Fold this sequence. Notes:
About 30% of the residues lie in helices and about 25% in strands. The chain is α/β, with parallel strands linked by helices. It has 2 domains: about 5-70, CATH 2.40.240.20; about 80-235, Alpha/beta knot.
Amino acid sequence: MEYYYTPSENVFESENKLYLREFEFKHLAKVLRKKTGDIVFITDGKKNIYECIITEIGKNEIVCAIEKKETDLNEPEIKLTLCLAPLRNLTRFEFAVEKAVELGVNTIVPVITQFTISKNEFSRNKQERFEKIIISAMGQSQRCYKPVFEKAVTLNELNDLYRDEKNKVVLYEFSDDMEQYEFEESSDKVILLIGPEGGFSKEDIQTLKNGNWQIKSLGKRKLRAETAAIAAVSQILLK
């Protein structure tokens, strides 16, 4: 069973009705060839899941009758923010975003470090593509929360943004600390930072140390950035 997505403004609970438009409309009507009477599960990305029956398929929208509502299923207790430097190979960056969403991250923040090769802001077309990747991964993995893809920030901006957060960890290939992450239970938020292909500079690491980040290692192997992201997210969320 897969979840499909519609923004909350397309949901009218008082009328027991919701609408699927744009990307998900095309997916259900044109690709999956859904028909009236079919049962589908729709999320608004805000932790609500609606069991629905398709009542009408128009030229640009699908109309569904809401039969049942549930809330906050399959979402991890930890609210994880993944901060990841854009990669030279966009396909690998997209892969990391997709798998991070499937595993349960809440927020994704592109971070520009000293050795980040691609330092440009993502174009509108690329941002729309990330949106589609997130929606698809969310539905496939039966998530009811739609992760946020934030605008790119510099490392200094990131440090300021999360200055007051208690649980912050960065993976650094030259760190000898392979101990379990130590998180304060008083906060359910965790900030995870993964560097670019070229790794972090010494200046980057000093900046992070000054910001009270835990400097950790995933082991003796040198992993690609997207592999490190998936491994670390799994360790934090699936333990």
